[in-house]
Amino acid sequence: MQQETTLTKVASHAPSVAEPAAEHAEHHVDHLKMASFTYNIENSKMAMWLFLASEMFLFSVLIIAYIIARYAHPEEHAQLNVPLTSINTFILLLSSFSVVWALSGVQMGNQTRLLRGLAGVIVLGSIFFLLMMYEYSELSHHGITLAHPFGMAFYALTGLHGAHVLIGLVWAIYVFNRAFNGVYTKESYWGVEFWGLYWHFVDVVWIFIFTVVYLL
């Protein structure tokens, strides 16, 4: 009887063979989940780059159309407000620095910096969009409308970019709301990164548009 009791105690204190196997299986499942998550992010990044490439092609076509209309109607080109648009361009470039500020904040786990950076983009982007609308109003008073080839080419190009800015602003508000609720961490911030990639694209495209439309 004493021997049986001793064996029972030893068996109860002996490590279970099933425990290491269960831990290994759990670790394997976690590894698969992480690999799947990383794979999905990489696929999403690839999809984003393909989308931006297609958008760049569309903008390129509209830029060519504008160049043709611009040299066919030089008198209407002279009505463009270069000083105002130069200020607006500077504002949009500042918003890109705000994106970098926000992204660096989330990478460091600094929630305040992230929120301030996002808020800065929303404010600066909104100012850019409103000034663009003001310029449209000003140009319409000078007779530059969609009824003329130059106006059609100008509004198609800059209007498409303005639509992208508006989409970026709505997206920024969405990202800000999620950041405010603590969704993003320094380990998981791909939502901020994707939006930032889109906003930088919008800024780079505008540099080309500003150069071709207002400076040449």
TrEMBL record:
The chain crosses the membrane at residues 46-68, 80-102, 114-134, 154-176, 196-215. CDD domains: Heme_Cu_Oxidase_III_like. Residues 45-216 form the Heme-copper oxidase subunit III family profile domain. GO terms for cellular component: plasma membrane. One of its GO terms (biological process) is aerobic electron transport chain. It is found in: Cell membrane. The keyword Kinase does not apply. Keywords: Cell membrane, Membrane, Transmembrane, Transmembrane helix. Its main location: membrane. One of its GO terms (molecular function) is cytochrome-c oxidase activity. InterPro entries: Cyt_c/ubiquinol_Oxase_su3 (IPR024791), Cyt_c_oxidase-like_su3 (IPR000298), Cyt_c_oxidase_su3-like_sf (IPR035973), Cyt_c_oxidase_su3_a-hlx (IPR013833). It is a multi-pass membrane protein. Belongs to the cytochrome c oxidase subunit 3 family. This is Cytochrome oxidase subunit III. It comes from Candidatus Thermofonsia Clade 1 bacterium.
